[in-house]
Protein backbone atom coordinates (compact mmCIF):
# COMPACT_ATOMS: atom_id res chain seq x y z
CA UNK A 1 0.00 0.00 0.00
CA UNK A 2 1.24 3.46 -0.91
CA UNK A 3 0.55 6.54 1.20
CA UNK A 4 0.68 10.26 0.49
CA UNK A 5 0.41 13.12 2.96
CA UNK A 6 -2.14 15.70 1.90
CA UNK A 7 -2.08 19.50 2.16
CA UNK A 8 -4.12 19.29 5.37
CA UNK A 9 -2.06 18.55 8.48
CA UNK A 10 -2.49 14.90 9.50
CA UNK A 11 -4.62 13.85 6.52
CA UNK A 12 -3.30 10.96 4.40
CA UNK A 13 -4.28 9.30 1.14
CA UNK A 14 -3.79 5.52 0.91
CA UNK A 15 -3.64 3.57 -2.37
CA UNK A 16 -3.75 -0.22 -1.93
CA UNK A 17 -2.60 -2.89 -4.33
CA UNK A 18 -5.60 -4.30 -6.20
CA UNK A 19 -5.40 -8.02 -6.99
CA UNK A 20 -7.38 -8.83 -10.13
CA UNK A 21 -8.08 -12.10 -11.93
CA UNK A 22 -10.86 -13.61 -14.02
CA UNK A 23 -13.12 -13.78 -10.95
CA UNK A 24 -12.87 -10.06 -10.18
CA UNK A 25 -10.72 -8.21 -7.65
CA UNK A 26 -9.55 -8.43 -4.06
CA UNK A 27 -8.30 -5.44 -2.09
CA UNK A 28 -7.57 -4.42 1.50
CA UNK A 29 -8.43 -0.70 1.80
CA UNK A 30 -7.13 -0.44 5.39
CA UNK A 31 -3.83 -2.03 6.44
CA UNK A 32 -2.49 -1.33 9.92
CA UNK A 33 1.27 -1.41 9.15
CA UNK A 34 0.85 1.14 6.34
CA UNK A 35 -1.45 3.28 8.47
CA UNK A 36 1.01 3.32 11.37
CA UNK A 37 3.92 4.16 9.05
CA UNK A 38 2.03 7.12 7.55
CA UNK A 39 0.04 8.47 10.51
CA UNK A 40 2.25 7.52 13.45
CA UNK A 41 -0.24 5.47 15.47
CA UNK A 42 -2.59 2.51 14.89
CA UNK A 43 -6.01 2.97 13.31
CA UNK A 44 -8.55 4.42 15.72
CA UNK A 45 -10.90 2.15 17.68
CA UNK A 46 -13.88 1.57 15.40
CA UNK A 47 -17.18 2.89 16.77
CA UNK A 48 -19.30 2.92 13.60
CA UNK A 49 -19.20 1.92 9.94
CA UNK A 50 -21.54 3.74 7.55
CA UNK A 51 -22.11 4.16 3.84
CA UNK A 52 -23.92 6.57 1.54
CA UNK A 53 -25.13 6.13 -2.01
CA UNK A 54 -25.50 9.20 -4.21
CA UNK A 55 -26.80 10.22 -7.61
CA UNK A 56 -24.44 11.89 -10.09
CA UNK A 57 -24.13 15.55 -9.13
CA UNK A 58 -24.92 15.13 -5.45
CA UNK A 59 -22.74 17.37 -3.29
CA UNK A 60 -22.40 16.51 0.39
CA UNK A 61 -20.64 18.61 3.00
CA UNK A 62 -18.57 20.25 4.23
CA UNK A 63 -19.42 18.08 7.26
CA UNK A 64 -17.64 17.88 10.61
CA UNK A 65 -18.19 16.75 14.19
CA UNK A 66 -17.98 19.04 17.20
CA UNK A 67 -14.84 18.48 19.25
CA UNK A 68 -15.10 17.24 21.90
CA UNK A 69 -16.13 14.52 21.33
CA UNK A 70 -14.68 14.70 17.81
CA UNK A 71 -14.55 11.98 15.19
CA UNK A 72 -11.82 10.66 12.90
CA UNK A 73 -12.86 9.08 9.60
CA UNK A 74 -11.41 6.65 7.07
CA UNK A 75 -13.25 6.95 3.76
CA UNK A 76 -13.20 5.03 0.48
CA UNK A 77 -15.45 4.56 -2.56
CA UNK A 78 -16.22 0.89 -3.39
CA UNK A 79 -18.64 1.82 -6.20
CA UNK A 80 -18.76 4.72 -8.61
CA UNK A 81 -16.50 7.75 -8.50
CA UNK A 82 -16.28 10.80 -6.25
CA UNK A 83 -14.23 13.95 -5.94
CA UNK A 84 -13.49 13.94 -2.22
CA UNK A 85 -12.47 17.10 -0.34
CA UNK A 86 -10.35 17.24 2.81
CA UNK A 87 -10.86 20.65 4.44
CA UNK A 88 -8.95 21.98 7.44
CA UNK A 89 -11.42 23.92 9.59
CA UNK A 90 -9.51 23.43 12.88
CA UNK A 91 -8.86 26.83 14.43
CA UNK A 92 -5.18 27.08 15.27
CA UNK A 93 -4.09 24.37 12.85
CA UNK A 94 -0.93 25.10 10.84
CA UNK A 95 -2.97 24.39 7.71
CA UNK A 96 -6.24 26.10 8.72
CA UNK A 97 -8.33 26.98 5.67
CA UNK A 98 -6.40 24.70 3.31
CA UNK A 99 -7.99 21.84 1.41
CA UNK A 100 -7.14 19.12 -1.07
CA UNK A 101 -9.33 17.10 -3.43
CA UNK A 102 -8.75 13.39 -4.07
CA UNK A 103 -10.52 11.21 -6.64
CA UNK A 104 -11.92 8.12 -4.92
CA UNK A 105 -13.28 5.37 -7.14
CA UNK A 106 -13.95 1.67 -7.52
CA UNK A 107 -10.85 1.16 -9.72
CA UNK A 108 -8.05 2.51 -7.52
CA UNK A 109 -9.98 1.86 -4.27
CA UNK A 110 -7.83 4.47 -2.56
CA UNK A 111 -8.86 5.80 0.85
CA UNK A 112 -8.42 9.00 2.84
CA UNK A 113 -7.80 9.38 6.55
CA UNK A 114 -9.53 12.43 8.05
CA UNK A 115 -8.07 13.43 11.42
CA UNK A 116 -10.39 14.59 14.19
CA UNK A 117 -11.96 17.96 13.36
CA UNK A 118 -11.16 17.95 9.64
CA UNK A 119 -14.08 18.71 7.34
CA UNK A 120 -15.30 16.31 4.65
CA UNK A 121 -17.19 16.96 1.42
CA UNK A 122 -17.57 15.19 -1.89
CA UNK A 123 -19.15 15.43 -5.32
CA UNK A 124 -20.60 12.24 -6.82
CA UNK A 125 -19.20 12.00 -10.33
CA UNK A 126 -21.22 8.93 -11.34
CA UNK A 127 -24.63 7.44 -10.63
CA UNK A 128 -24.86 5.22 -7.55
CA UNK A 129 -21.58 6.46 -6.10
CA UNK A 130 -21.15 4.65 -2.80
CA UNK A 131 -18.96 6.02 -0.02
CA UNK A 132 -17.85 3.88 2.89
CA UNK A 133 -16.92 5.45 6.23
CA UNK A 134 -15.12 3.97 9.23
CA UNK A 135 -15.52 6.28 12.22
CA UNK A 136 -14.00 6.65 15.67
CA UNK A 137 -17.30 7.86 17.19
CA UNK A 138 -20.95 6.97 16.81
CA UNK A 139 -23.27 9.33 14.99
CA UNK A 140 -25.00 11.83 17.28
CA UNK A 141 -27.16 14.25 15.30
CA UNK A 142 -26.58 17.29 17.49
CA UNK A 143 -22.79 16.89 17.17
CA UNK A 144 -22.85 16.87 13.35
CA UNK A 145 -22.39 20.29 11.75
CA UNK A 146 -21.70 21.70 8.30
CA UNK A 147 -20.23 24.70 6.56
CA UNK A 148 -21.05 25.73 3.01
CA UNK A 149 -19.20 23.84 0.32
CA UNK A 150 -19.62 26.90 -1.89
CA UNK A 151 -18.09 29.36 0.59
CA UNK A 152 -15.88 31.60 -1.60
CA UNK A 153 -13.37 31.92 1.25
CA UNK A 154 -12.73 28.18 1.05
CA UNK A 155 -12.66 28.24 -2.74
CA UNK A 156 -13.30 24.53 -3.26
CA UNK A 157 -12.87 23.61 -6.91
CA UNK A 158 -16.30 22.15 -7.72
CA UNK A 159 -16.55 20.93 -11.36
CA UNK A 160 -18.37 23.42 -13.60
CA UNK A 161 -20.81 20.82 -14.95
CA UNK A 162 -22.23 20.08 -11.52
CA UNK A 163 -25.84 21.18 -10.97
CA UNK A 164 -25.60 20.46 -7.26
CA UNK A 165 -28.13 18.27 -5.49
CA UNK A 166 -27.87 19.15 -1.79
CA UNK A 167 -29.70 18.52 1.45
CA UNK A 168 -31.65 21.24 3.25
CA UNK A 169 -29.01 21.21 5.99
CA UNK A 170 -26.19 21.78 3.51
CA UNK A 171 -28.12 24.52 1.72
CA UNK A 172 -28.51 26.38 5.03
CA UNK A 173 -24.92 25.82 6.20
CA UNK A 174 -22.96 28.91 7.29
CA UNK A 175 -19.71 30.08 5.76
CA UNK A 176 -16.39 29.32 7.42
CA UNK A 177 -16.24 32.86 8.82
CA UNK A 178 -19.79 32.67 10.17
CA UNK A 179 -19.15 29.31 11.82
CA UNK A 180 -15.94 30.63 13.38
CA UNK A 181 -17.70 33.74 14.67
CA UNK A 182 -20.36 31.54 16.31
CA UNK A 183 -17.68 29.36 17.93
CA UNK A 184 -18.74 26.26 16.00
CA UNK A 185 -15.37 25.29 14.53
CA UNK A 186 -13.14 22.72 16.25
CA UNK A 187 -10.04 23.93 18.06
CA UNK A 188 -6.85 22.31 16.78
CA UNK A 189 -5.54 21.58 20.30
CA UNK A 190 -8.79 19.85 21.24
CA UNK A 191 -8.62 17.77 18.07
CA UNK A 192 -5.05 16.67 18.79
CA UNK A 193 -6.06 15.86 22.37
CA UNK A 194 -8.90 13.69 21.07
CA UNK A 195 -6.56 11.82 18.74
CA UNK A 196 -4.10 11.34 21.58
CA UNK A 197 -6.88 9.41 23.29
CA UNK A 198 -6.78 6.73 20.60
CA UNK A 199 -4.96 3.55 21.58
CA UNK A 200 -1.29 3.96 20.71
Features of the shown structure:
mainly beta; globular; Jelly Rolls; 200 residues
Give a written overview of the molecule.
With 200 residues, the chain is mainly beta. It has one domain (2-16, 28-196): Sandwich (Jelly Rolls). Helices cover 14% and strands 34% of the residues. The protein has 4 helices and 13 strands. The protein has helices spanning 32-39, 168-171, 176-181, 188-196; strands at residues 2-5, 12-15, 19-21, 24-26, 48-54, 59-65, 73-79, 81-87, 99-105, 111-114, 119-124, 129-135, 144-146. The strands form 3 sheets. It has a 6-stranded antiparallel β-sheet, covered by helices on one side. A hairpin with a 6-residue loop joins strand 1 (2-5) and strand 2. It is globular. The two termini are 21 Å apart. One of its GO terms (molecular function) is dTDP-4-dehydrorhamnose 3,5-epimerase activity. This is dTDP-4-keto-6-deoxy-D-glucose epimerase. Belongs to the dTDP-4-dehydrorhamnose 3,5-epimerase family. The active site is at 63 (proton acceptor), 133 (proton donor).
Amino acid sequence: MQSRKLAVEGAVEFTPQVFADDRGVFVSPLQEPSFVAAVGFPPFPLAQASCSRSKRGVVRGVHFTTTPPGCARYVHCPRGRALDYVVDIRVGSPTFGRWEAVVLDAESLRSVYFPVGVGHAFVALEEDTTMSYLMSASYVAENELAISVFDPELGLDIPDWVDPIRSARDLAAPTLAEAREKGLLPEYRECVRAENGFSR
